[in-house]
Amino acid sequence: MSLFDWFADRRKVNPVVRATQEVEDGDGLWSKCPECGLVVYRKDLIANASVCSGCSHHHRIDSEARIRVIADEGSFSPINSALAPTDPLAFKDRRSYADRLRDTQQSTGLRDAVVTGHCRLEGLPLSLGVMDFRFMGGSMGSVVGEKLTRLVEEATALRQPLMIVCASGGARMQEGMLSLMQMAKISGALQRHRQQELLYIPLLTHPTTGGVTASFAMLGDLILAEPKALIGFAGRRVIEQTLREKLPEGFQTAEYLQEHGFVDLIVPRTRLRSTLASLLRLHGVSAPVAA
Amino acid sequence: MVRRPLLEFEKPLVELEDQIEQIRQLAKDSEVDVSQQLLQLETLAARRREEIFNSLTPAQKIQVARHPQRPSTLDYIQVITDEWFELHGDRRGSDDQALVGGIGRIGDRGVVLIGHQKGRDTKENVARNFGMASPGGYRKALRLMEHADRFRLPILCFIDTPGAYAGVLAEEQGQGEAIAVNLREMFSLRVPVIATVIGEGGSGGALGIGVADRLLMFEHSVYTVASPEACASILWRDAAKAPAAAAALRITANDLLQLGVIDAVLSEPSGGNHWAPLQAAETLQAALLQQLQDLGELSEAELLEQRYAKFRRMGRILDPEATEFSPNP
Ligand SMILES: [Zn+2]
Q1: Measuring CA to CA, which residue among B195, B269, B216, B223 is closest to residue B66?
Q2: How far, in Å, from the CA of A58 to the mean position of ligand 1?
Q3: Does residue A124 belong to any structural domain of this protein?
Q4: Is A235's CB within 8 Å of B329's CB?
């Protein structure tokens, strides 16, 4: 199934057409950069991987757009796209979790906060997981955990390199401790991938926090990040409350993490594909010989 | 006698205790035989205590789990081991006081013991950072676990933390990375790992020493994905809704047993572990010895496979493609 078919299929499941939110909305044809105010033709912005040509601001992009940035055209074949969340705790805060799920599924056309599959990148094989922040803040519940674990296991079985694009507020509270345990589950699968001396590269995008940071985001052989992405374990407000003082300049940005030794490379989105292809080749990944 | 700090719902019990004490004093002075009355009152007190502690709400269990006199990691270690040496440092420049560890003997076995450590009073708590470990704590724990792996010593972990420390320095030193590496590496340990939630299990900071072959939990302990206070302020936009969040999050031992997160619940003495710490330690020791014996019968390969499978099963999903073909997960 091609990527196009897959999205078409997904629309059948959730017929509600969603508004594109990844780019600050103008009237649809044009978009305005929230950082520098530059107004550009939306098509040009998307052609530039949703990076502002004026100030290099990286607009938030959804999983569909992210896959388009990384994978060779039409090469992405999703796996486990039918997996759907349940409401194991019958959780209800101001609204019920079941209602929230239904609404989010309708507005995003996704079943949960991660899309997984296998693709080619400049012909090289890559197993790819992409979190989607639009789905309840990219929070990690049972489905995110299960889909990523299956992806890692398949990458291990296929002896393929693996990339997970992180964008998450952390564990999904509405599934309680089952969410926390996904951190361990995915880390266990990554341990087996690593044991086979296979390459794992997480890409940390804005924002990557909480339980995702305390598990697969930080377990890469190499760790990549997007410029200025917020990356951290604890929330800024929590830390401010603990300290009762202002946080340092640039605290918890990708650049700050690199300075402290936790990020290898900060890669502008426009160079992500070529950088990743080079890294894969340098690690001996090669395109399979056509049968 | 120094009176322990009282929880709101313990107050009726103390009134009864006071009454009992008064009657004892009276009896001393007057030579009236009150043994019958005393017996009645004591039975009543025991029954009330039982009733109260059998029907604690999740929010009340949090209070018991956080009770300043609830036995801590080092309290238990001192009782359940015959020999014990605390070992220090992560070998990278720090020795976290909020996460302690060492080597000891339980029954006839050498084991490595690791746990979060809270303080009893404010002064001790400042030194222990209220049981909130720093990256150096998790790295010390990993160093000790790897030591245990090399010398084939089973590992016993004791979980009792409000959460990993949230601070600027902790972020700069890689709190997320430290916990993440522990999660991954605990899957490669070739020795039995048994973790027990002795007090509160706070999120990733608890899980950082919690990837175990067996996860046990005391009856009134709690284990949370996020503190009910934080959960309430995020999802309810009102921190005062913490008791509602505590109930909704399913944080009690029985809930987690049903959800397949933990393997066994250890019963507490009537009134909670702080009423009878020695009895609690005996319960813990017996459970650990039993688990050590059971896990000791597995080969290394079986142990690793079963640990992976245990976590592999966790979570609840709808898998329309799988239902016909496979029962799991
Ligand atoms: Zn701009």
Answers
A1: B223
A2: 8
A3: yes
A4: no
